């Protein structure tokens, strides 16, 4: 099963199936669900929970964007415009008469019932009869069952809030009480008649939501799960398999993670494993898991610099292989992603035959595996498009065709290792550039933790190449803190989100200038989110290097950003405010060694509907710049969130940025 639109200019996602015959015959794909064929209004009417989930997941498509199936893949459930639908994966697609709006429907393993969330209540509907009832209803307006709270979805990668029992007779559900969380209000200044939207936002140093777990039986029974929630308040993830319930919990300072086994009948938990680190521990997708024999599958450093795959307590990957995620455990085979070179992410398998890499060439890959069938999907540096290959017992059994448009660009990216830290850096020059004159430079980083820009995937450089074709040498660099280079590299930004990342951008710029004809008297920098913070930081702290900046949705004051992300790097601002002051843009405006009359053109851009990096970041920085007599420009985007999915907005933003940079860099 897979999701794909009908074409590269079609934003509506459909549900498809690829039938792979067991006799080695030709695999054939078929359309299972086309949202346009269903009896729905012309525009999607998304529930608030689904709108928030898509924002957290950075999902920009419409139609069927998520689905869930039963164990034998005979039934799939999905939501459209707040209504619940099921399909038998053949010709039959029908709505269920569920409460509306319905969110996150998931069938039980037998396919007899579908659980979903509506009105903050966790409900179950019987597929055959349509009998619908609430298993757990909120005790107050700030309580929900079966939903992932903001922190889980935005920072932990956990988009779900409930899990079915293997026999389909009960559910493990998260109970979230947001009453301790402070309330922020996001207004729509372009429409003053619209009331401000209230959001529960856990800013650094303030209370989080109170998250607990409860086992809910279809027979009406209810059992709370017990663990030390005061010491381990973060619920990272959960898994309920044939051997029982596993949950992962984390301390607020993120220096300890525990795997606990829970007895669903009593709610008691026992310790399976505890990992600690004096700095912080990262959350790795896909774990914990277990093999049929009961061996725990986990990912940890365990005294090494690179994260390794742990199976049954034994590290089974070598030191030079940095594990990124566990994709699936299929029998005795563990499918996972890992990097030997940080710009490449490959799919590996560990099983009875040992360790094997399943993908080759320079690229970025992922996959799934079940019942001996493996699906590998990835992008390569030497071509556009996504390749999706199906293997059965290791032999090719079919392909899924990509309908993506091919960008009308001749991407000429060169990946280098810049400076003494061998910063992974991409350099792009204008198409047809002959090298006659040095080029003005545009640094185009993200630059922060938990994200990479320099990857061996051609599609990652389509926009940078377009920027280069406007007359710039574009330089993209991943500095300290970025993933894929081990514990010491990632922890280098501990208690300082400003100094190391800015130093590394300068080192990458100078390293690129040693190999390419760059005009270092005309250097601009642009970025979004952390990249926006880095761009503003660059012209405020180092105007001797950077001569113009575009800061999109920048974090300007880290006390205004969320708990789980910010406290991981900077600690508790109430206990120690110094790392926050060191990393703040306001310190760069009012303090430092840069005279107030040394200014560089700075354009601040922010979506007024952003509930992740709220517009207060930009507005407060603008006030501080004005008070300091530092000229700048502000571009507010009405109705735009942290994403800019609107095509007109995205396109015109690029054109405005190019005009600003050309004028600023003369």
Helix content: 10-25%
The residue-averaged pLDDT reads: 95
- Number of separate strands: 43
**Approximately what portion of the residues adopt beta-strand conformation?**
35-45%
CA-based gyration radius: 25 Å
Distance between the termini: 52 Å
**Structural category:** alpha+beta
Query: What is the multimeric organization of the chains shown?
Result: single chain
Spatial order of the strands forming the largest sheet: 36-37-39-38-40-41-42-43
Task: Please give the largest β-sheet.
Answer: 8 strands, mixed
Q: Given the structure, what is the number of helices?
A: 11
Query: Quick one: overall form?
Result: globular
The poorly predicted ranges are: none
Protein name: Prolyl oligopeptidase family serine peptidase
Pfam families: DPPIV_N, Peptidase_S9
Domain Peptidase S9 prolyl oligopeptidase catalytic: 462-665
Domain Dipeptidylpeptidase IV N-terminal: 83-349
Structure description:
This is Prolyl oligopeptidase family serine peptidase. It holds the Pfam family DPPIV_N. The radius of gyration is 25 Å and the shape is globular. With 666 residues, it is of the alpha+beta class. It is 16% helix and 36% strand. It has eleven helices and 43 strands. The strands form ten sheets. The protein has an eight-stranded mixed sheet with strand order 36-37-39-38-40-41-42-43, with helices on both faces. Strands 13, 14, 15, 18 and 19 form a five-stranded antiparallel sheet that branches.
In short:
The protein is of the alpha+beta class and 666 residues long.
């Amino acid at each position: 099963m897979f999701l794909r639109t009908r074409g590269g200019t079609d934003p509506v996602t459909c549900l498809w199936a690829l039938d792979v015959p067991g006799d080695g015959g030709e695999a054939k794909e078929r359309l299972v669900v086309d949202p346009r064929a269903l009896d729905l209004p012309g525009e999607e009417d998304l529930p608030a929970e689904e709108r928030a989930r898509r924002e957290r997941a950075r999902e920009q498509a419409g139609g069927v964007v998520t689905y869930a199936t039963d164990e034998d893949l005979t039934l799939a459930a999905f939501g459209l415009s707040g209504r619940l639908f099921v399909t038998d994966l053949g010709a039959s697609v029908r709505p269920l008469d569920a409460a509306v709006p319905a969110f996150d429907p998931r069938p039980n393993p037998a396919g007899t019932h579908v659980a979903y969330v509506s009105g903050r209540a966790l409900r179950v509907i019987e597929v055959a009869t349509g009998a619908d009832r609430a298993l757990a209803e909120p005790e107050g307006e700030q309580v929900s069952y079966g939903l992932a709270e903001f922190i889980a979805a935005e920072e932990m990668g956990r988009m779900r809030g409930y899990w079915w029992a293997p026999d389909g007779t009960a559910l493990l559900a998260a109970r979230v009480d947001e009453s301790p969380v402070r309330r922020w209000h996001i207004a729509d200044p372009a429409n003053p008649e619209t009331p401000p939207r209230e959001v529960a936002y856990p800013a650094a140093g303030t209370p989080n939501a109170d998250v607990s777990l409860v086992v809910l039986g279809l027979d009406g029974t209810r059992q709370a799960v017990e663990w030390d929630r005061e010491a381990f308040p973060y619920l990272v993830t959960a898994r309920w398999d044939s051997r029982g319930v596993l949950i992962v919990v984390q301390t607020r300072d993120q220096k300890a993670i525990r795997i606990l086994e829970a007895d669903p009948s009593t709610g008691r938990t026992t310790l399976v494993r505890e990992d600690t680190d004096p700095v912080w521990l990262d959350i790795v997708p896909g774990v914990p898991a277990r093999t049929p024999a009961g061996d725990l599958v986990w990912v940890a450093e365990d005294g090494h610099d690179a994260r390794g795959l742990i199976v049954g307590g034994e590290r089974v990957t070598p030191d030079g292989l940095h594990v990124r995620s566990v994709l699936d455990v299929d029998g005795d085979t563990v499918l996972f992603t890992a990097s030997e070179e940080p710009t490449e992410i490959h799919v590996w398998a560990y099983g009875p035959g040992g360790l094997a890499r399943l993908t080759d060439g320079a690229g970025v890959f992922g996959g799934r595996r079940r019942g001996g069938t493996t699906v590998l999907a990835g992008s390569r540096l030497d071509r556009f498009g996504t390749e999706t290959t199906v293997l059965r017992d290791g032999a090719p059994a079919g392909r899924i065709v990509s309908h993506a448009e091919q960008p009308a660009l001749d991407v000429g990216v060169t990946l280098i290792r810049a400076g003494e830290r061998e910063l992974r850096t991409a350099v792009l020059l204008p198409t047809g550039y002959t090298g006659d004159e040095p080029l003005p430079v545009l640094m185009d980083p993200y630059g922060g933790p938990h994200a990479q820009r320099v990857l061996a995937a051609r599609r990652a450089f389509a926009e940078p190449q377009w920027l280069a074709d406007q007359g710039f040498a574009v330089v993209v660099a991943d500095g300290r803190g970025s993933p894929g280079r081990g514990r010491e590299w990632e922890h280098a930004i501990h208690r300082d989100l400003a100094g190391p990342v800015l130093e590394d951008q300068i080192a990458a710029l100078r390293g690129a200038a040693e190999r390419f004809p760059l005009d270092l008297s005309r250097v601009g920098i642009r970025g979004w989110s952390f990249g926006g913070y880095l761009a503003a930081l660059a012209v405020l702290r180092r105007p001797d290097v950077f001569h113009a900046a575009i800061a999109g949705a920048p974090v300007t004051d880290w006390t205004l950003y969320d708990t789980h992300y910010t406290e991981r790097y900077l600690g508790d601002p109430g206990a120690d405010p110094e790392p926050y002051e060191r990393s703040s843009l306001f310190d760069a405006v009012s303090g430092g060694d840069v005279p107030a009359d040394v200014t560089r053109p700075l354009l601040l851009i922010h979506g007024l509907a952003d509930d992740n990096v709220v517009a207060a970041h930009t507005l407060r920085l603008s006030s501080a710049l004005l008070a300091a007599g530092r000229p700048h420009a502000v571009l507010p985007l009405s109705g735009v969130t942290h994403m800019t999915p609107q095509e007109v907005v995205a396109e015109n933003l690029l054109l405005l940025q190019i005009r600003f940079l050309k004028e600023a860099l003369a």
